[in-house]
Every structure is written in C-alpha cells, then in structure tokens.
Amino acid sequence: MPAFTSQAQAAAVFPQLFEILLEDPQFGAIVRDRGLSVRFVHTKPDLQLHVDADGVRVGGPPAPASLTITMSCDTADALWTGRLLMPVAVATGRIRIKGSVATVVEFVPLLRPAFDRYPELAAAAGVPAAS
Amino acid sequence: MLDLTVPGTAVPTFTSLPPHVEELRDRVRAFAQERLRPAVRRLDQADAADFDWELVTEGHQLGLTRLVISRQHGGLGYGELGVAVALEELAAVDAGYALVFGATMLGQAPLLLSGDPALQARFLPLFAGDEPVLACNAITEDQAGCDLLIPENAVHARDVMRARRDGDHYVLDGAKKFITNGKVARYATVFAAVEGTPGASALTCFVVPLDSPGVELGAVADKMGYRACLGTEMAFTGVRVPAENVIGGEGGGVFVNVQQMNMARAAVAAISTGVARGALELARQWCGERVQGGVPLYRHQFTARKLAEMSMKVDAARLLYLRAAQLADTEIPAPAYEPAVAKLFADRIAIEVAEEAMSLMGARGYVRDWVMEKYLREALGARIYEGTPEVLALAITESLYADDDDL
After folding, report:
1. Which positions in chain A touch B258 (Cβ < 8 Å)?
2. pTM of the full predicted structure?
3. What ipTM was reported for this prediction?
4. Does residue B72 belong to the interface with chain A, where contact is any CB pair within 8 Å?
C-alpha cells in the first residue's frame, strides 16, 4: 500500500517539512548565502516544490534551480523515516539528483532536522507508519 | 566552460575546462614536470616496500589529498572533473604516484556519499592538516575480487571477511589483499559481510582507523609497475568498530561500492590517458630528434602514421573521461555507462600507445634508463583495478539493455 494516497496528502507534509528546514540556521544559511535553490520533484502522487531563500513554492512552472531532486513519495517516506539510507537510495536510483555533486555533498548532511520532524508531520496528515 | 552540447549535433565537444579546473591542471602539471619527473627512475626502481613520504608531502601541500573534500571540512571542493584532470597530469609522469592520491580519494568517497554529518566531521578534517594523511579502500580479498563488484555475484563470493554485531559495535575478522595505500593509510573503508548471510550478500562498509587493535598490515606486493604506491595485505582479527562507523547501513555496502566504482572509473580512465600521453610524449620527442635516412623519424610515413594514430587515441580517451567526469559531477547516482566506456577505452589504448611508442624507440625503448618500458608496465596495471575489461563490458551491456524506468 502506498504511503501517500493523494496529492493533497503529500502537499500537507512536504512543503511544511522544507519550511521547517528553512528555519534551521545551517540550512537557512546555505540557501540564503549561496543563493541555493532546490526543486523537489515528488512522483506518485505528483507534487513539485521549489525551495529557495524566498520560501517554499508548491507547483507552478518549473523555475531554474541549483539542484533538482526527484523521488517517489514512497521513497521520500522511506528516506525521512530512516528506513532507507541515502547511499542506498542513490545507488539504486530511487533518488536522482541533477546539479553540482559538490553542492549535494555539502547539502545532504544539512537535511538532518527534517528526519526529526517528518514522523509527526506524516502522522498528522494520516500517512500510515510503516512497520 | 566545459561545453557538452552543441546545437544540431549529438557529438560532445570540450572547448575548454572551467577556469578553476584549468588552474588546478596547470599547478599539478608544473609540479609533475618539475618535482616528480626527476624522481621517476628512483621511484620505479626502488624496493617494493619503499614509499617516498617526502614527495607525497609535497603533493599534500598542493592539495592532492583533499581535492574532493568540501570546503567546510578544510578541503578544496573539486569534483570528479578536477580530480581526473589532476590525475592525468600526474600519471603522464608516474601512474603509481597518481594512484597514491586516487586511492586516498577512493577511501574518502564513502564518507562523502554517506551524507552523515557526524562521520564527516570526525574523519574528513584529518586530511586538511599540515601532515599528509592517506586513506585506502579495502575490498579485494584472496578469494573474492569481481564477486564483490558485481551485486548479483555477491552470494557466490567465498571466504569473505565477516562482521559480527556485538552490542553497539561490530567485530571484523578476515583479510584483504592488494590494497593500495594499505601500508601507509591512516584509515580504511573496509567491506565485510554480516555473519549469517551467504557469500557477500550482506556486504557492509565500515570506516576503520588502522591503528585499531587487531589490525595487522602484511606484505607489500612486488608489482611490475605502479612502484610508487604500495599494494598491501591487511589482516583484521577481532577488530571492534563502533556501529556509527557503518556507511550505508548494514547490507548497504554493495550500493556504496557501486557508487564508488562509477565515480572512480572516470579518474582511472584519466590515469590510463596520462600513461598513454606520457608514452606518446617520449615517442614524439625521440622521433623528432632521431635522424634516419637523412630526415627525422617522424618524416617517414610509417612513423608519422603511427604517431598520428597514437595522438588520436590519447585525444579520444581524454574526451571520454572528461564526459564521464562531467556527468559524475552533475548527476546522482553517478552514471554507469560513460565511466565504464571511458575506462575500457583508455585502459586499452594505454597499452596500444605504450607498446607502439616503445617499438618506435627501438632498443632504447627496451632499456630501463629511458623509462619508456615503465609506461608499458603501468599501462597493463590499470586493466585490473576498479573494473577489469570483463566487468566493464558487463556494466556497459547492462546499460545498453536498461529500461528507462520512472520513479
């Protein structure tokens, strides 16, 4: 059974997750100071987010971004709950990233606060906890 | 700028490198020509276990041990493109010296891929100190080589190093073989299979400080080439490693390794390109100076044809590794196809070019003092590590048949 059953459910979780991340001093700093922008392309159900210093934008025409990160909502759920580790997700092609790999290497460790906050956001949106 | 696409054609062209990569290439080239070249014969003819820390320290001061480490950890933040270009410059003079740094980067790669800030903060700043710190990647074993590189073969791997969970630690038991830098590295990324699983099907990647109790460094292999770097046996007896030193999770080692390989192959292709270029440069010099029949050798049509073919091959190999490196810098996961093609081609032409260059020099090519025969010995080495031609062919063919699956 998929973790997310509708776009509305995904929209209730992921934008808020990245707004939380933008409030994190380290993550916020790299976005602001380096002008970093990230396009998250979630599939099944589809939900696209654009994250930059101005905040999180849902949908709309794709804007140029420093990094484009593509994964299914199921993969995102497995990743943020810690069931799927980043090196495995990357090596198996479940996450695909376009952009400067050097930037990704610096960026990924800064996602740490999202791992702490995701379970409560997902639970509030009715995403079933995986066994 | 590195221009990969030309409107109206599918042929990639590389008009120039990004300025910061060009600057790195020029610095490494000057070092290789001025400092490394005078030492080449000594390095090549030294005992198998000799290691020139002084020259390695100079390479460290140039930044070669921290090229791929991010700036926040004291590194230089270069990607695969910078690494590959730098390694070609070094390998054009001495491939063994280039591999000292290539192997260190291979040992650093799992940490970079881990995305684990705590592990990165513990280990990566070590490379930015005043003294050179080297790393190694310990995967090859006596009975298991390619079985550890091909995921579907892992179950058939024999006598694989084992890891047993013991509370908040793992205990490693087993041995590794032909590990470049094993004798001189500060830490290793070590691959072991978790107990209770067949073969290497639960291969797991551990970061292991090499001063840990139970680590024993064995004999250095007496290699026919790559004499400036040391390939070592390593024994692990009851070595306790904290669970937080696992990269990619228990059983995730094979995925870490696949990514490492796909990233490393562009760099190894660059080393082979450098070896071919070094041989070509010597042959070009000789054929310009040596007079036969009243004209320099290169004026003879047979010789000219050979030199032209050799030059063409070196250029083509460089284009292939630049394409692979550029993709590895801009795509995650790193592609499998382009690095494998680049390495397969560069490894092959390095042998062809070195063999041809040696024959053009006649007896001098066969004499050690002239260094030419070193290039042929080095050219044969790169076919073995980070993917044999057979393993590369499997990776390439698999890509040819891969479905463009969606996520």
Report:
1. 91
2. 0.90
3. 0.81
4. yes
